[in-house]
Amino acid sequence: MGLPLSTYNKAYIYTVVFIMLICLVGIYYSVRISIADTQAYKAKYLLSKWETSAKLPEKEEVEVALDEVTSALYWEPKSTEYMDLKAHVLTYKGLVHWKENQFSDITGEAIQLYQESTKLRPKWPYAWARLALVKAYRGEVDALFSTAMARASKYGPWEPNVQKTIIEAGLYSWSYLDASTKKHLLETIQRSLRYQSKKVQGIIKRYELLVSVCGYLTINKKTRQLCGW
């Protein structure tokens, strides 16, 4: 018959078991993060390729990216990075199916993902800017659109890609902007002219709004170059 365990031995065993459980939990979450990172990397690679291309991606390629980022989000459901990534891919999917009038149907989930992401990470300007752009493309120039424009401008005033996205969203919706939102847009245009004037000029000219925009800008060297004053 075995000897009873002493209080010291029991405490030692409990401590070892507790440490082992912590290690197992750590390993479990490390594996989940690793799998998610692997899946997300494939989607990020495709997205970066699309953003440097002059044309939209193929439908099949978008579906591959969407499958990958959906898998990543399954493994890391609270990751704001993966929420934003999936929303961005869904936006591209909507653009690919634009001619079929499916943009709004496809991007409904993107709106939800951006809203959830911005609740968890409210000062991340890229999510706010892309939310504004999706809302603009959906023709939803509402309170959420205005909030997204304002917060993107507030939290990422000097981020070049945030600036371009704000400008794209604002000019697309130019005729429907309220005074406050137009103010945020024009301030963004004014700032962006310092470091990326050619890109901004290209966006403004694409929407044929150069005369309209120039009427609101403060006169300086950069705006003279843009407007031809």
Describe the structure.
77% of the residues lie in helices and 0% in strands. With 229 residues, the chain is mainly alpha-helical. It has two domains: 7-110; 122-229.
Total separate domains: 2
Radius of gyration, rounded? 24 Å
Number of strands: 0
SSE order in H/E notation?
Answer: HHHHHHHHHH
- Summed over residues and divided by their number, the pLDDT gives a mean of 90
Question: Brief description of this entry?
Answer:
It contains ten helices and no strands. It is mostly helical and 229 residues long.
Give the tags.
229 residues; mainly alpha; 2 domains; 0% strand; elongated
Summarize the topology.
Blueprint: H1 7-51, H2 59-75, H3 80-96, H4 103-120, H5 125-137, H6 143-155, H7 160-172, H8 179-206, H9 210-214, H10 221-227
Helix pairs in contact: 1-2, 1-3, 2-3, 3-4, 4-5, 5-6, 5-7, 6-8, 7-8
